[in-house]
Amino acid sequence: NRFAEKMADRHNQKFIEDIAGSLIEEAGEIFSQVTVDYKDLDHNNQIENLEFEALKENNSQQVEELSRATKEQLFMSLRIARIRQLDAKLPIIIDDSMTNFDPEHTARMLQIVESVAKENQVIILTCHPELIDIAEDNTEVSQYIGLEDGNFEEDKNAEEVKEMLEA
Length: 167
Description:
The chain is α+β, with helices and mostly antiparallel strands. The chain contains five helices and seven strands, in the order H-E-E-E-H-E-H-E-H-E-E-H. The strands form three sheets. Strands 1-2-3 form a three-stranded antiparallel sheet. Strands 4-5 form a two-stranded parallel sheet. The protein has a two-stranded antiparallel ribbon with strand order 6-7. A hairpin with a 4-residue loop joins strand 2 (53-55) and strand 3 (60-62). Helix 3 packs across helix 4 (129-138) and helix 4 packs antiparallel against helix 5. The longest helix has 34 residues, at 2-35.
């Protein structure tokens, strides 16, 4: 068991070393596009512990120093970067992951999610009508499905789904 544990640890460490650089580089680009204020990410060889630094022009901040929304933007950037790296094009479900983003950050994140949707099926679940407004204004959304009285109502337009959410 000890031998197996050591082999698994080595394999895990090698995996992290192999993907860490490219993952952080791509996540940094996404994070920069979403936040605009931050220019990149660094992991200081502590990716396993989620110890990241958000880099600005003249300074940096540790994850614990970031606002809740900025932390969520950082971790969503990491998830999207990892999804882009996968060979398997699996469906992606995003369940109110942008709740704490302001409208500008939400719009920028939706544009990145839209680019991922060219390769993967993306389903965004929400109970926030304002997300539909932002998506409608900033992306080429293909379909809205509402849930009314426990039943799916397919092929709704954005206004119909917003009315359902607001009710």
